[in-house]
Amino acid sequence: MDAIARADVRGDGTLGLDGVPLTAERVRSIIEGALLERGCLAESTIIAPGTQAADPHMIGSGPLRAREPVVMDIFPQHKETRYFADMTRTVSRGVPRPEVVRMYEVVMRAQDAGIKALRPGITGQEVHELGEDIIFAAGYDTLRAGQKHDPKDPVIRGFIHGTGHGVGLEIHEAPSVGRSGTSPLAIGDVVTVEPGVYDPDVGGVRLEDMLVITDSGSRNLTRAPRQLVI
Questions:
Q1: In a domain, 132, yes or no
Q2: Number of alpha helices (DSSP H) and beta strands (DSSP E) in the chain
Q3: Domains: count for the chain
Q4: Within a domain: residue 228?
Q5: In tens digits, what is the pLDDT along the chain, a chain of 230 residues?
């Protein structure tokens, strides 16, 4: 985020840092190098700029541009304990188009609601459907039956994945915070809450925090700020 914030905006709208183009590959290298210094290994870190962010699994490549969303999904593994962590932030160098701002606000509301709902005894499916309802009511599609605003639209867009997953010695493990998450969450479970909204014509927005279930709710383990414009 610091590197993107310090970048210069070039005449063609691309970003440059210290006289060199700021690319997804360069930001990925900065992140993975910083994590290595902290005893963590990170591979396939997602830095997906612009419309590439419409694919939740796109690793991302090429130059970053001003006023476009950049989805950064970081999931390092600690070398000694072998435990994983997982976090996503979406940022833009400068104010992006209004569609992106609205997507960000909706995703943030869905994430806040999901985090607030976490507690022992609730199922991941219940948390997931809470986020789906918020996103669908805001005008975006989800993958739940009956939650596509235009059934004739062949494009898969909107909220197109689960809300989260367990994190531990595997980056994706039980319990599921999604459609298949029918088992109640238990004290000590570590899960992510990561709703997103995606549109091939615009890009995507995803926010992800990692939390541990406690006897009274949950405790957020993620320290990074949430801010769209940097």
A1: yes
A2: 4, 15
A3: 1
A4: no
A5: 999 999 999 999 999 999 999 999 999 999 999 999 999 999 999 999 999 999 999 999 999 999 999 999 999 999 999 999 999 999 999 999 999 999 999 999 999 999 999 999 999 999 999 999 999 999 999 999 999 999 999 999 999 999 999 999 999 999 999 999 999 999 999 999 999 999 999 999 999 999 999 999 999 999 999 999 99
